[in-house]
Amino acid sequence: MEHGEDRQITIIDEEGNEILCNIVLTFESDDYNKSYVIYTAVGQEFDEDGDPEYHASSFIPAEDGEDGELFPIETDEEWEMIEEVLNTFFDEEESE
To answer: Most buried residue, 39, 40, 46, 66, by most Cβ within 10 Å?
Structure first.
């Protein structure tokens, strides 16, 4: 698992707008044979309740090490796995 300061990606929303996002973490799942990225939109990190708003996508890393192509998460099983990884990540952050 990787996480770092100042790692950002730009995503395109449904309306074609570019949105700058901060990468929370990236990880790979052997179960799904995919790589995943969890991120928050810059300036829109919180929902109306003040809770952090996280987004996730699967991605295929580009061979040259540049940003790969993002894909939507398609199954409930993947979402549950992502939530578990995110919860574990925050538990580890708090215990440091």
So the answer is: 39
